[in-house]
Specification:
Low-confidence stretches: none
Number of strands: 8
Radius of gyration: 20 Å
Bound molecules: 3-methyl-2-oxobutanoic acid
Largest sheet: 8 strands, parallel, barrel
Number of helices: 10
Shape: globular
Order of helices and strands: HEHEHHEHEHEHEHEEHH
Length: about 260
């Protein structure tokens, strides 16, 4: 069965946790889909994970379309959510034009936008056009500029604003909300206050689901060590060993063998 925004939304009522990964390429998407992921986000974190940038600010529509196309082609079951990059939803008309490109040109099922009340007109425009929207609150990587990533909502005023934004997104009809880097207690309060599922990253255990960058889960992003990441493998070590073994065989004329050659 292929997930829709409605089947993801319904999981909260059914008491089922949502599993999600942020990933950017065909083989990763195929593997995650076969492993049973519910939601695949093509996150603009691709700028950091694959391009080596310090933040997500350099990502453009062209980058995100390119990666979303590769992911959507591989996925048979999960919902594919394209992350709208910075400046791609500066106003409602631009937001609609770009969101439609993700759905019509490269096969995304939904889009994700960072922000709450400040982007209400954009979200309403997309909803009116029948486009499924995922919200994103807490730390908003597109808005921090060159500032440091930090936990949002420790301060009571900031926490109240995030809670209000979540309620507003929920009223507008977002099918899920990502909560990034917020205190666990605030995430729990928001999760209880909204009807749509919350999907946490650095937001503690009480959200309705969790998302991780696939590279982080697999252990192929050395140097990145946020507290909320749990590595389930050390693929970096495995990849280095495989590369080293291959190089050794070439240098010692053990690869290719006869059976790997054509006559
Ligand atoms: O860019 C991204 O990968 C994201 C997810 C981590 C939510 O926004």
């Amino acid at each position: 069965m292929k997930h829709t925004s409605q089947t993801i939304y319904s999981k909260k009522q059914a008491g089922e946790r949502i599993v999600s990964l942020s990933l950017y390429d065909f083989p990763s998407a195929r593997i995650a889909d076969e492993a049973g992921v519910d939601v695949v986000m093509v996150g603009d974190s691709v700028g950091m994970a694959l391009f080596g940038h310090e933040n997500t600010l350099g990502m453009t529509m062209e980058h995100m379309l390119y990666h979303t196309q590769a992911v959507a082609k591989a996925v048979k079951h999960a919902l594919v959510v394209a992350d709208m990059p910075i400046h791609s939803y500066n106003d409602p008309e631009i937001a609609l034009k770009n969101a439609q490109r993700f759905l019509k040109e490269v096969g995304a099922d939904a889009v994700k936008l960072e922000g709450g009340a400040t982007i209400q007109p954009q979200i309403e425009k997309l909803m009116t056009a029948g486009i499924s929207v995922m919200g994103h609150l807490g730390m908003l990587p597109q808005s921090i500029g060159d500032g440091k990533y930090r936990v949002y909502g420790k301060d009571p005023d900031e926490a109240a604003r995030i809670l209000e934004d979540a309620k507003q997104l929920d009223r507008m009809g977002t099918f899920a909300i990502v909560l990034e880097c917020v205190p666990a207690k605030l995430a729990e309060e928001i999760t209880k206050a909204v009807r749509c599922p919350t999907i946490g990253i650095g937001a503690g255990p009480a959200t309705d689901g969790q998302v991780l960058v696939f590279q982080d889960l697999l252990g192929i992003r050395s140097g990145v060590n946020p507290r909320f990441v749990r590595r389930y493998a050390n693929l970096e070590k495995i990849m280095k060993k495989a590369a080293g073994d291959g190089f050794h065989d070439v240098k010692n004329k053990k690869f290719p063998a006869k059976k790997e050659s054509f006559s």
